[in-house]
Specification:
Shape: globular
Number of helices: 15
Order of helices and strands: HEHEHEHEHEHHHHHHEEHHEEEHEEEH
Number of strands: 13
């Protein structure tokens, strides 16, 4: 079954003829080539674009090996443009061309050229390409399959798909693999032979074991606040390895540049400012995270939090970790301060949402605990608790909306209930 990926296709459609290079970024194997060469090309044909006005070049194809040089590639494209009508130029694996920036800049100067590119190695899967074309590039960031897309591809209901989804993640090829062993082998091989090697070679990291251990520590600690200094102490106390915080910070940056993980910073809700160096790191694909740990540490609470984060980011939201300070008088009559966490401070345009992730709310005490930070936020933005239970959305006397996880993940307008 073909997954339409309409959310991303629409972004490509909206970017047509905007004078910018449309740059499809995302973690390897998340479907960038399929989006551009299959879905977008078919859209163009369906709206009446002649096939000879769609110039499609897969630069990783052996037949196009001679086009992996800037001038031959540029001349080939120009030779195919035989009239003044608009041409759509789709280039896959553009990073295989040395000095590809010169090719793209030259194509930008052609009035009847609309350019779309993807890439799959660490050179392209980094923030470098966006920096290079700042102001001239329009990024479409592709994430692995959402739960909704996963259900579309498998034909399963959300409830039926959930366990497989939170175990094996959303890389599209997973859907074609029939057994647990095949899925785990695929994820392990992908991490070892693609993601890890790309980062090590690109960044010239000499100590593979050291870097790989940090990846495992981050995988173990999704949902936990940390920073390079804390991680340095973890290496010393638990792993008996000395690795300084500067190196750790650099390694974390490499993982982010490769879209393997994302960083959520800590934000003081009342003070309206970012605070300290503590942050949380979430894996772009939860299946990779689980495979890295050998399917150990399958805590549904933390995995659920990671998946909620990914869904919010997929929808284009800016997501931070919130902090609200509580002041109270202790038993000795002294004023004390306590920091309460808001799982997610979510900004989407001029809208803001405060969201708590809770596996379950079995009793009133647990509900009060989850509500504690939300009740101390005085502004009028929406406050939401997402629970694992399949419940009908409801709003309490404080205006706090409680919704079920599957409802949130499947319904694109779930936050507006």
């Amino acid at each position: 079954m073909q997954i339409k990926r309409d959310f991303y296709l629409q972004q490509l459609v909206d970017g047509k003829q905007n004078g910018l290079i449309k740059i499809v970024t995302g973690i390897r194997r998340c479907g960038k080539s399929f989006l551009l060469f299959k879905l977008f090309r078919q859209y163009l044909l369906d709206v009446g674009v002649d096939s000879d006005h769609i110039i499609q070049i897969a630069l990783d194809d052996i037949e196009n090996a001679n086009l992996r040089e800037p001038l031959p590639l540029y001349k080939c494209i120009k030779a195919k443009m035989t009239d003044e009508e608009l041409y759509y130029i789709l280039l896959d694996e553009i990073q295989l061309v040395p000095r590809f920036e010169e090719v793209l800049n030259s194509l930008l100067r052609i009035d009847n050229a609309d350019v779309y590119v993807t890439g799959s190695n660490s050179k392209f899967l980094s923030s470098d390409i966006i920096t290079e074309f700042r102001g001239r590039g329009d990024e479409i960031h592709l994430y692995p399959l959402s739960l909704s897309e996963y259900c579309e591809g498998t034909g399963l209901s959300p409830a039926e798909a959930w366990k497989d989804y939170y175990t094996y993640g959303g890389l599209p090829h997973i859907l074609s693999l029939g057994t647990e062993k095949k899925k785990i082998d695929y994820l392990n091989n992908l991490f070892e032979s693609v993601y890890l090697i790309d980062i090590l070679e690109r960044q010239r990291i000499k100590n593979k074991a050291e870097f790989e251990e940090l990846v495992k520590i981050i995988a173990s600690g999704i949902g936990a606040l940390t920073n390079p200094t804390k991680l340095e102490k973890t290496f010393k106390s638990v792993k008996k390895v000395n690795i300084d915080s500067v190196t750790i910070s650099r390694y974390l940056g490499y993982m982010q540049d490769a879209f393997l993980i994302e960083k959520a910073e800590r934000y003081d809700v009342k003070g309206k400012k970012y605070i300290g160096s503590l942050a949380k790191y979430y894996f772009t694909d939860i299946g990779l995270r689980n495979a890295i740990l050998g399917l150990r540490q399958q805590e549904e609470t933390h995995i659920m939090e990671n998946i909620i984060y990914n869904e919010l980011r997929r929808r284009g939201c800016k997501v931070d970790i919130g902090m609200v300070e509580q002041r109270f008088v202790d038993n000795d009559g002294k004023w004390q301060r306590k920091q309460l966490e808001v799982d997610f401070v979510v900004n989407e345009g001029n809208q803001r949402y405060y969201i708590q992730s809770a596996l379950a709310l079995p009793d009133e005490d647990k509900r009060k605990q989850e509500m504690g930070s939300l009740l101390r936020i005085n502004d009028s933005f929406k406050k939401i608790i997402i629970v694992k239970d399949d419940i009908k959305p409801w709003r309490d006397e404080n205006g706090i909306l409680t919704i079920g996880l599957l409802d949130f993940l499947i319904n694109a307008d779930s936050l507006e209930q």
